[in-house]
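Entry for the shared binder. Reason: the reviewer on the internal report wants the predicted structure included alongside the sequence.
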Amino acid sequence: MTEQQSKVLIVDDHPLFRERLVQLVENEPDLSVCGEAETAQEAIELIRTTLPQLAIVDITLRESSGLELVKSIKALSLGVPVLVLSMHDERVYAERSLRAGAAGYITKDQDATQVVSAIRRVLSGAIYLSEQMTASVLRNLTTSGSKSSNLAPSID
């Protein structure tokens, strides 16, 4: 691992998927896998010992929920951003993931270049959602924002 490489922790309960994700990350010259976990407990231990720059977390884990793990990682206050990579419907879980403290959500049906793009976006400090999900969230915000602005008290 060189100085410029960002350390990535991979948390998924499927060994074959983890193995492929490790290969994907390791093929990038600026990224390196610092650990793999299949449970939330293993992930927390690895975060404390390896201090990754990013954790990639699945929603479904052995013995616990990935969303609970996201909350636990945030509670550690180590500044480790989380990208949720899951097979679950983005329309249902992306917003839940962000509310739990994740910095992004991508589905497992995306191609490798899109996954790498999501990783880099979150590592840069930005939020990652698909274009469709971003449009949906912004639409909801502007719709609810215009309704609530009518309720705001006026200041004279």
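Summary line for the report: The helical segments are 15-26, 40-50, 66-75, 90-100, 112-123, 131-149.
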